[in-house]
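Predict the holo structure. Ligand: magnesium ion.
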Amino acid sequence: MSTTIPEKDQRALVDRLMSACGGSYSSEVRRRYFISGPQWAAAYQGQALFHAPTRTAVEPAEVIERLAEIGIGWWCTHDTDIIPTNHLMSDRQAEILDGLVAALERNGVQCSMVTGETFHHGVWAGGPAGEQAEVRAYARRRLENVVEIGHKLGAQFVVYWPGTLGYQLQGVVDETRMLKRYAEEINAACEKDLAVSRASAASTLRHCLEAKPFEPQAELLLPTTDAMLGFISSGLLTHPEMVGVNPEYLHELMWGGAPRAALARALVAGKLWHFDINDGYRLKHDVDIGIGLVNPLDWLNVLILLRAHGYQGPFNLDYKPPRTTSNYGVFRVSFPSAVDRFITLWEIAGEAISDPVINEATKALEAGAGLAGSEDADRIFEANKELWTLHEVIGHRLVQILLGAHRGRTVGPLNS
Ligand code: GLO
Ligand code: MG
Ligand code: MG
């Protein structure tokens, strides 16, 4: 029979097994990466439609302190994570923000991004750009206020996940009107940013749109990062140069896309400014699992792409610690292990980029067989077919690098 673990010994067991895992970076090393910890991820209580909460609430000042201890140098938040809806745009808001500025300074943490909640409160039942002018005016005011909060907290980014921009029932709203109305709200936020920046001689924020294919509406008007890129260049935005995207890894998987390809499309458009990192499964709901726990090989390839193209933006840990993790575990296991998997994968991506096997194979593929100018398809195919075998060599090599097998790690006897 296995030995029971009394309640009083459980934390010590978690700590001992976490340190037995090894592979954790120091908080100084962790701080070198532009990794941000969202207030809502740290404070998530495990609730969902079919799930009661399993953890107690954690106040923003405590989250900031815990992130600092772990070595996460940036923090981000929704407006309503820090200010109750009915205190937004009031004197109470100003007091709360002053307290947070002090908490950030005290802990040496910076606010990287602020985002507006346009999905949770009942006022968004019909979306932020529905029929009623008063709802839209309120939405505009909320987005302008997010910009003000961003400036106050010293953020560089503001993210908009429109959340409820869509519908449950087809034909109730005219999609083109809804899109135009949403654009007016983003335009108002950009105008506000220009005014605040002018008045305070500060830089403008980088406004990033985040897409999700479904949830919480049945149908969404801007379901993918590509849709967002189309929206940015649709002519509806008055300041398209101020607006980029914040793809989320899992949101692209959810519709069956390849996150790496979606990121590449944003990169070539010059719009990849912010990135929500997490993991999960294709064609399933938004499980928001920690980075690398489901698709480490795909994640390695995502990071190879971003390293190779000099992505400089934040890596935002937009995931949800599992319901089975305790409040203690959130800061002892969930956050530090997510950061450490990211750093490990980032470093492995660097190894892959300078790997001699991959580099030689890639160069050979680029050079081709030497038939430039030939118009004979059969001949070109014949001349290149051995070279194409290198695709599989590269695929194998990437898995070896991921598993450490390129350094000689094998399982079982090599020669027997
Ligand atoms: C939900 C989104 C959400 C956004 C956040 C920032 O699925 O991923 O967490 O990233 O609201 O705008
Ligand atoms: Mg997200
Ligand atoms: Mg998500």
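The chain has a mean pLDDT of 97. The pocket of D-glucose (ligand 1) is lined by residues 78, 115, 159, 161, 210, 212, 248, 276, 286, 318 (CB under 6 Å).
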